[in-house]
Write the structure tokens for this entry.
Amino acid sequence: QKEVEQDPGPLSVPEGAIVSLNCTYSNSAFQYFMWYRQYSRKGPELLMYTYSSGNKEDGRFTAQVDKSSKYISLFIRDSQPSDSATYLCAMRDSGTYKYIFGTGTRLKVLA
Amino acid sequence: NAGVTQTPKFRILKIGQSMTLQCTQDMNHNYMYWYRQDPGMGLKLIYYSVGAGITDKGEVPNGYNVSRSTTEDFPLRLELAAPSQTSVYFCASSLAGGDTQYFGPGTRLTVL
């Protein structure tokens, strides 16, 4: 079993839809969670950074962590064609500064 | 402020050749990282550095070497290139361990 699992997609949604992207993990010690967005042939860029459980909102993006289920989500409201990209989750425990990355979910928002 | 820059953008190598991938950051970050990204495999850590003169292996270090003589630069050396090293290579940096990592644009390497 991989430490971090992420559905590769592609996930296709119409413009304006609410998108839910998810990662599951096996290590209950993970406490720091990040979501990166990666456009085609570009480097990843940080979208959201959360610690422990709960929700964090930033504009159209909401990151949610459910440590009891070992499950994290990224919600995108009012999705736009410019949101079309691959979304990577990354996480670590407090004993290391090395992050484990998911394989990424490819999202397509159709105009 | 350019952030993290990488050169070259693309490179084709023949089996057995060597090359150095360059990475420079201008954010005065202490930590720097090299990752490779293969299709469907996510980002795998090759080497990292916590400061000038200090480097350590990541998850997939075989076939690579690094050095960190300055805070700004963290080159990755490939000796005796193999087809298994065909990948996209990303350099990243962070101010401290565990902090947000800022990525460069990547180097797309093909070994034939």
Q: What stands out?
A: The mean pLDDT of chain A is 93.
